[in-house]
Design a protein that fits this description.
six-stranded parallel beta sheet, binds NADP nicotinamide-adenine-dinucleotide phosphate, Rossmann fold, 2 domains, alpha/beta
Length: 287
């Protein structure tokens, strides 16, 4: 068997067309969606992510403002910038690009962002809303994973889902989203015993562990749907997922490649969240 490919680029294109149309409809009502991205320091990967986010906004007609601050920025200086953005009417979404330098308390910064503008979905209020089954802004990568599954018409309800990785950004919200869709969910982490026995039980397997090619074909249920969130830069410069694509594609029914699977969806869901934030702040009906 060879798994069908879940094409994140193609799904992103479809979703971005819808986002573009919605942005235009907002403009006809005199509303220009605005996203502010704050970057502290010179992390090379972050620079690329921030540039990609700004370009995606431009393509969609969303106004993006990138605020670059030096590595030496103090916690108070960063909080001050966040506060000013919280108050601005033309900025509907605020994102502080992580990681931020160690001398700044990340948790405090995230908690200072107005939850209505928290387009990353990291604020405790938004995490709580997701957990209580009434989500507003959802962490972009797991949200994108859900959209991928939905796009291909795969039925989640009643399925056994296993999420490997329990970060606040990916693993935990992913598990909650699958639970909300009525899957039976198991979360695995670095202390999990007999991991392969658990992953082999999964109809839906989501892997986000930061370990290149870790999940191999013998750890996967035949015919299952495998979402590989991992993005690991190898010594040879190539990008590898957390799933060993070649062996798993022979066993699974569906699989995301890396690159071109989950990756393109993350920025798309950021754009989607920015629109959600506009609707909420401008009291418009979602369309
Ligand atoms: P993270 O914060 O480093 O968390 C890794 C998780 O994996 C932890 O929960 C850890 O368990 C678990 N883990 C580590 N080794 C394990 C093992 N041997 N068996 C089972 N679980 C294990 O990572 P993250 O931020 O969630 O990111 C995960 C991956 O996704 C990374 O490769 C990252 O680059 C990628 N990513 C991609 C996108 C995208 O847009 N495509 C977005 C975000 C992240 P403990 O909790 O016990 O330590």
């Amino acid at each position: 068997m060879s798994a069908k490919i879940i094409d994140g680029k193609a799904v992103s294109k479809v979703l971005r067309e819808k986002i573009f149309n919605k942005t235009n409809a907002l403009k006809e009502q005199g509303i220009v969606p605005g996203l502010a991205v704050v970057m502290v320091g010179e992390d090379p990967a972050s620079k690329i992510y921030v540039k990609n986010k700004a370009t995606a906004c431009q393509d969609m007609g969303i106004k993006s403002e990138v605020i670059r601050m030096p590595h030496s920025t103090s916690q108070d200086e960063l909080l001050d910038v966040v506060e000013k953005l919280n108050k601005r009417k033309d900025i509907h979404g605020i994102l502080v690009q992580l990681p931020i330098p160690n001398h700044i308390n990340e948790k405090e910064v995230i908690e200072r962002i107005n939850p209505l503008k928290d387009v990353d979905g990291f604020h405790p209020e938004n995490v709580g809303k997701l957990l209580s089954g009434n989500p507003y802004l959802i962490s972009c990568t797991p949200y994108g994973c859900l959209k991928l599954i939905e796009h291909y018409g795969y039925k989640i309800e009643g399925k056994t889902a296993v999420v490997v990785g329990r970060s606040n950004i990916v693993g935990k919200p992913m598990a909650v989203l699958l639970l909300k869709e009525n899957a039976t969910v198991t979360i695995c982490h670095s202390h999990t015993q007999n991991l392969a026995n658990i992953t082999r039980s999964a109809d839906i397997l989501v892997v986000a562990i930061r370990k290149p090619n870790f999940i191999t074909g013998d750890m996967v249920k035949p015919g299952s749907l495998v979402l590989d969130v991992g993005m690991n830069r190898l010594a040879n410069g190539k990008l590898a997922g957390d799933v060993d694509y070649n062996s798993v594609a022979k066993v699974a029914g569906w699989i995301t490649p890396v690159p071109g699977g989950v990756g393109p969806m993350t920025i798309t869901m950021l754009l989607q969240n920015t629109l959600e934030a506009v609707y909420e702040q401008e009291n418009l009906l979602r369309k």
